[in-house]
Design brief:
It is built from 15 helices and 14 strands. The strands form 3 sheets. Strands 3-9-8-7-6-4-5 form a 7-stranded mixed sheet, with helices on both faces. The protein folds into 2 domains: about 20-50 and about 290-385, Alpha-Beta Complex (Aspartate Aminotransferase, domain 1), CATH 3.90.1150.10; about 55-290, Aspartate Aminotransferase, domain 2, CATH 3.40.640.10. Strand 10 (about 315) and strand 11 (about 320-325) form a beta hairpin. The protein has about 375 residues and is an alpha/beta fold.
Amino acid sequence: MLADLSEALQQRQQQGLYRSRPVLEGPQSPHVTIDGREFLAFCSNDYLGLANHPALIEAIAEGARRYGVGSGASHLISGHSQAHHMLEQALAAFVGLPRALLFSTGYMANLAAVTALVGREDVIFADRLNHASLNDAALLSRARFIRYPHLDLVALEKRLAATDAQRKLVISDAVFSMDGDQAPVAGLLALCRRFDAWLLLDDAHGFGVLGERGSGSLYSLQQEEWSAPHLIYMATLGKAAGVSGAFVAAQAPVIETLIQHGRTYGYTTAAAPLLAHALLTSLQLIEQHSWRREQLARLTGRLRNNLQPLPWQLLPSETPIQPLLTGESQEAVRLDLALREQGIWVPAIRPPTVPEGRARLRISLSAAHTETDIDRLSAALHALARH
C-alpha cells in the first residue's frame, strides 16, 4: 500500500502538480520570510492588511485576559461565549440580515448550511467554478446536484424551470477565488425569488473588500432585497477581516435550522472566544478604514495596466485576485520558481484547483502593498516574458 502511494506521489511530481507547504517565519505581510529567505509576497488573502494590525493584536490579548484561551465545549453545551454572541449580533447588523451564526471555518459553514437545508428529495444548482467546499457540501447533502456554466443565468433559468422539486437551492461563490470575477448577485436573487429557491452566496473573498463599508457583495442589491427570505449569506473572517472563522447570515428560521441540524456546528468545539472578541475590533476597522479599499482599487488598476502587454492572459477581475493564465501547469511552476529566484512569491495554481489547461499565477493584492511593490513584480514578469 505504501508503494502505491509513493508511486502516485511521484507521478504527481512529474505532472507538475505536487504541492509543498512553505514555512512562514513571522506575521502576514507583503514582506515575509519563508523557509529562511526574504520575499515580496503576493500570495495572501489578507486583503486589507489587518492580520498583523496592532489594534487586533491588543484585542486578542484583551480577549485572552477576559475569556481565557479555549472555549472548552461546543456551542450547544457550554462553549457559546458572550464574545461569540456579541459578534454574531454585530455581524448580522453589519451585513443587514436578521441573524448570524459563527463557524470555525468557511468550509464548515458551507457544509452546515447546505446539508441542513436540503436532502435526497431536493435539488442543488451550482456554478461550475464554485469553491470545493460548496461542491463537497452538495455531495454530502445527497440532493440532486446540477451544475450550470460559469455565470450563465440563462442556463440556470432553464434548469430551474425544468425541475419539480419542492425545495431548491442555488449555491455560488460571490467572488470566485481563482478567477477573481464576481457573480451576478442581483440576477441570481431575482431567479431564486421567481422560482422560490434559496440562494446561498459564499462571499469569502468579497466581505471586507467590496461595498462602501466593506460589507461585501450584497452592496449591489437594493436595500429591500437584502431582507429577501431566499437569501443566505456566508463570509469568512480569516481573509479581509484578518483573524479567523466564518459566519452564515440569514432569516431567523434558517439560522435556527442550522443550530438544530448543522452537524459541523453542533459537533465541534467552539472557536476560542478571544478570536470573536478581536473580530469586533476588526469590524470597526473594516468600516472606518475606507482608505484600505481605495488603496486596493488603486493598486489593482496599476497592476492591470502594467501587465496587459504580457504574453500570458490577464483574466478580467476588478478584485484583489489577479490571475495570470499560463495554460499548462509546468509553465505556471516555471514562472513561480523564476520569481522566487528574484525574491518574489506568487503561487502557481494548478489542477485540480483549476480546470485542466487553466493553470495560472494567482496574484493576490493587499492594501499593505505599495506602488513600488507592484512595479517590482511587473518588471520581473516583463523580464521573464522577454527571456
